[in-house]
Amino acid sequence: MKKLMKIPMYVPVIGLIISFVLFFIVVNSPNDALLAAGLVLVHLSAWILAAKFLLLGPGFFSMVLSDKKD
Q1: Mapping DSSP to helix (H, G, I), strand (E, B) and coil, where does residue 6 land?
Q2: What is the pLDDT of residues 17-68, one digit of tens each?
Q3: DSSP secondary structure of 32-70
Q4: Is the overall model pTM greater than 0.90, yes or no?
Q5: Which residues contact 28 (CB under 8 A, 6 or more apart)?
Q6: Residue 23 belongs to what H/E stretch?
Q7: How many other CB atoms are there within 10 angstroms of residue 19's CB atom?
Q8: Residue 22 to residues 12, 14, 32, 34, 53: CA-CA distances in angstroms?
Q9: Residues 25, 27, 29, 33: is their CA dihedral positive or negative?
């Protein structure tokens, strides 16, 4: 889990952007290798973002909910 948390947030976002660029290229000129690379990249990036949210989300929300105003 610590290795996953060390991945900067911009890496999966850049992966999503690159995968959609690959999808746009595949629409213009069909290529199975580019389509497969785009699908793998979009799934990998989405799973990394989801895992980071699941690891960071509960801690953030519990911190917000337990914040007491004096």
Answers
A1: coil
A2: 999 999 999 999 988 999 999 999 999 999 998 888 888 777 777 766 676 6
A3: HHHHHHHHHHHHHHHHHHHHHHHHHHHHHHHHHHH----
A4: no
A5: none
A6: helix 10-28
A7: 20
A8: 15, 12, 11, 6, 25
A9: positive
Assess contact for 55 and 70: CB atoms under 8 A.
no
Check if the beta carbon of residue 45 is closer than 8 Å to that of residue 16. yes
The number of residues making up the chain comes to: 70
**What angle is formed at CA 44 by the lines to CA 55 and CA 48, rounded to 5 degrees?**
15
Cα torsion 28, 45, 14, 37: sign: negative
